[in-house]
Write a structure and sequence with these properties.
Distance between the termini: 89 Å
Shape: elongated
Radius of gyration: 24 Å
Protein name: Inner membrane protein YidI
Number of strands: 0
Strand content: under 5%
Keywords: Membrane, Transmembrane, Transmembrane helix
Number of helices: 6
Order of helices and strands: HHHHHH
Amino acid sequence: MREASIDRKSWSGLAGIVFGAVALVLALFLHSAGPIDPQPTIGQSIGEIAADIRESALRGLKGEPQPEPQAQVWGLDRILQTCAYVLAGIAIVLGVIGFVMRENRRVVAAAVGLGGLAIGFQLFVWTVMIIAGVIIIGYILANLGDILGGITGG
């Protein structure tokens, strides 16, 4: 006697594979193409941070209240990255639905695998970038005397 699950189409599993594949390609594109939105230079960023710290310290010394935090602007990079996470999540959910509906296990595993791989890839890349940033900041702090000594002539 043949099982009914063999005759059924694996619609949720196949849709999950499509969503997972699109999420993975989008994640690979985002991390290989670099930022799409225009980015300020490092000098501009550091200058703005220093000015904000100075203004905040002056307000604190004068006893003035600090301004309310402002919401971050959603740029194209942030929108695409969020879309990659959402598509990967949809792929995993569709894979689970396919598993519950007893669809072909290979199709279901592929849907969940592609969605999980898209999420895992993005998390891995961000972890590597954070570690690299900490190493660079540590190097700058360790050599701050040499950097400033070259500027001041001391």
